[in-house]
Amino acid sequence: MKVTVVCEHNRAMDSEEGKKAYPEGMNECIAGIFSEKNEVTLLRSDDQGVHGLTDEILEGTEVLVWWGHMHHGAVDSGLVEKIANRVQRGMGMIFLHSAHDSKPFKRLLGSSCSLVWREDGEFERLWCVNPTHPIARGLQTIDIPQEEMYGEPFDIPTPDELVYIGWFEGGEVFRGGCVFLRGRGKIFYFNPGHETYPTYKLPDVRRVLQQACEYVAPQGEILEKICCPHRPEPSYKR
Ligand code: ZN
């Protein structure tokens, strides 16, 4: 499967905490989650926008993974439309952590996607609320030793499939593992992954994201257009 990872590079990653969490770079760590079973293209975004996500690469992508935080505004709106269009035609997409505030996520969900947050490095336990869901196979709970708190209210449409609810030691809860269906495409949102904590190195986090990648992958061909103009003859006539 062809997986494209778009990961922002920002100043927090260059800080002491950021370098300690990911000496090799968080982008490489995220790409490595998917590279065992897939052909991965790793692209960077920054205050100049997304680099290298050409029409050719996007049209060859079966699952697009997105991590962004400080530079959402630099992402070209025309590119956002192309991404949303491809999801509706069947491409899978995974949004990680602060990508809840990214343009493609808000475009696909149609709401503000705002939430409450506290950057305190606290313990999070994700509880599976949908134990037969393929994304949660073998992962009833996922423990994150240190994470940024994301809490409700999370302004999203009711998820088509709610897989995990996160609980934080400060007391908040959050719909941290959600599936949304848009057209022929599946979207998974997963809340852990602040850039100064080594969350993407945790085996359970890597496993849940690998299972999510399999789940959102297109089941059939990705359509060339959102609407197929061909209307077959009725199969039943009175
Ligand atoms: Zn964060």
From TrEMBL:
<dbReference type="InterPro" id="IPR029010">
    <property type="entry name" value="ThuA-like"/>
</dbReference>
<dbReference type="InterPro" id="IPR029062">
    <property type="entry name" value="Class_I_gatase-like"/>
</dbReference>
<protein>
    <submittedName>
        <fullName>ThuA domain-containing protein</fullName>
    </submittedName>
</protein>
<feature type="domain" description="ThuA-like">
    <location>
        <begin position="28"/>
        <end position="216"/>
    </location>
</feature>
<dbReference type="InterPro" id="IPR009381">
    <property type="entry name" value="Trehalose_catabolism_ThuA_prok"/>
</dbReference>
<dbReference type="Pfam" id="PF06283">
    <property type="entry name" value="ThuA"/>
</dbReference>
